[in-house]
Amino acid sequence: MEIKEMQRKYIHLVVLAFIILTGCEKQIELDLPSVGSKLVVDGWLSSEPDEDGGERLQKVRLTQSIPYFETKDYPVVKDAQVILKDNKGNAFSMTYTVPLVYDPNLGKEVADEKKGRYELRKNLEMNTSYTLYIKTADGQEYESTSQEVTDYIYAPKIFVEYRDANSSIDEDEGYYVNFEPKYVDEGDFYFCWELYKIESYTDWSDPENPKEVTYSYSYSNLLFGSNVYTSVGESETQFDLNVMQGERYFIKQHVIARGVYDFLRLAEEQRDNEGTQFSPPPAPLRSNVKRIGGKTLDDDALGYFIISSVQRTDIITISESVKAIN
User: Fold this and answer.
1) Is the N or C terminus of the chain more exposed, i.e. has fewer CB atoms within 10 Å?
2) Residue 265 to residue 208: CA distance in whole angstroms
């Protein structure tokens, strides 16, 4: 009897505890402050000519920010006045364009409003400074800080290294693209590098005259470096992507301003931040596009406007001979 009585009391306690715990649930709604919509600028203008050797199509994309918990796409700003200015008194208007994107369901290219952008067909001049001016439909004016196209003549040296698997650094066996930048002693220079892969395909749109089309695309994240100061991360000169025999690659070296360098580095660090107890606290990514007449940093746009000069390495083909050498 005593055992049954104890069991009954135990059951009563469990039921009571369940009622108490479930009764303590309360839905809490956070009333987060709203800072309103802000202009977002995404533009990287390069001194490099177009792939066909003609004038480069420079592009700037403008959007509006949305609240954090919104799920809709960022609204595209398509009715602004966008002008590229140089330090020689020239002003070049950029035209709003909706690009054509191939739709596999329709089997043809269609206009994609989500990718609307401002375009200008122009090659940037060396040793010339540029700013971006924006005037939105509601009369708000913005201007970026000035950036110079740096005439840097030294492209890095590109080479391939074959390495065995290394479990201690989570590295697979295979071929890896490395490079060796050339720094100069005079002047302060800041760099970022991209690995590009070359692909080809046959265009059969005209069956009687098929064309071989060759194109390249960015194959990696950015690597960073400077002749002013370096650290372990900044001195890294190896892309950690495993490449295959027969593939072709080259590297683009971008020479950028100090502000661009710091912004891109900080953006990369925050993107890779895992949010653990050992991770550094997030820091604000300040734009270089300032609102004219703005009184605080909160009046500025989001995003960044970038100018860079570009040096390209030779094209390298991954071959079996590399393995024998290493």
Assistant:
1) N
2) 50
The per-residue pLDDT for range 229-250, each reduced to its tens digit, is 765 455 678 898 889 999 999 9
- Does residue 195 contact residue 220 with C-beta atoms inside 8 Å? yes
Residue 4 identity (one-letter amino acid)? K
Encoded tokens for 189: 């220079």
Gyration radius of the chain's alpha carbons? 27
- Look at residue 326 and give its three-state secondary structure: coil
d(CA 315, CA 216): 11
Cβ pair 173, 165 in contact under 8 A = yes
Q: Dump pLDDT digits (tens) for 117-168.
A: 999 999 999 999 999 999 999 999 999 999 999 999 999 999 998 888 777 6
Which distant-in-sequence residues (6+ apart) come within 8 Å of 92 by Cβ?
83, 84, 85, 120, 122
- With vertex at residue 258, the alpha carbon angle to CA 253 and CA 259, rounded to the nearest 5 degrees, is 115
The sign of the dihedral angle between the CA atoms of 270, 272, 277, 278 is negative
Contact 214, 200 (CB under 8 A): yes
At 157-205, the pLDDT tens digits run 999 988 887 776 667 888 999 999 998 888 899 999 999 999 998 888 7
User: Environment class of residue 42 by beta-carbon count within 10 Å: exposed (0-12), middle (13-18) or buried (19+)?
Assistant: middle
Amino acid at 102: Y
- pTM greater than 0.70: yes
**What residue type is 151 in one-letter code?**
D
- CA-to-CA distance for 93 and 84, rounded, in angstroms? 6
The rounded distance, in Å, linking the Cα atoms of 65 and 186 is 41
Beta strand 57-64 with 117-121: parallel, antiparallel or unpaired?
antiparallel
| CA separation for the pair 23, 43 (Å, rounded) | 54
